[in-house]
Amino acid sequence: MEKRSRPQASLFVGHGAPDMLISDIPAHHFLREVGMRFPSPRGIVVVSAHWISGDLQMTPPSALETIHDFFGWPSKLYNIEYRAAGADWLNGLLANTLIKAGYSVRTGSRKGLDHGAWVPLTLMYPKADIPVVQLSLMDTASPEQHFRIGQALEGLRQEGLLILGSGGLVHNLRSLKPEGSLPDHWAQSFDKWLLERLESQALQELFNFANKAEYAHLAHPTDEHLMPLFVAIGAGWSDRYIQQIHYSFSYGNISMTSYAFTRC
User: Which domain range does residue 33 map to?
Assistant: First the structure.
């Protein structure tokens, strides 16, 4: 297949709670329109905070299940199906790209997309007519190692593939408040700290966020929701372009802040 002359985007989006799909909040409307802001991709490589494995794994090149990996939410959410499909060419391209960069990757046992993947994709590309492959995080990999994985994926953008990281820049489920509540100072402060380090391209401080940021332990009791950010940064790093494309909070202290790392 011919390469496109205009590279695709590398994005990070906050996926929030599952009910973002049916909630009238700013992040819902942002995701509705952001898919139209960038060129339509040939395929999508999505990395979500909700798939972590011991090695790099990818979903199969077939019809992908909609995994409702949550409980206690309105029943209508469990009836939503995002009928995305994989593609042999997409999985082959991803696998070959990673192998050439020195990584091992295999088709894992997961047969579909978790809510960190299909919730934002449902809003961004509601027709589900773009092939999708989900790539796992690695449970022992550091922020810098996830950044390097992102760098390995960078060439896929030239092939017309969107690299989409999905997580949350502030994610502490013990600190949730009623929807519409203002975020606490510590949540705003950590979100701002990330913005400042991203804008100054202070990679080493970002890699060491757990020790450098004052409220890191409150923002991330566990760090899986921040790891997709580093993949997205890596995939767009050669552009040296960072733009905050959305800022809001959901349920008080869940950051929905989103970034673009490429000029598109």
Answer: 10-260
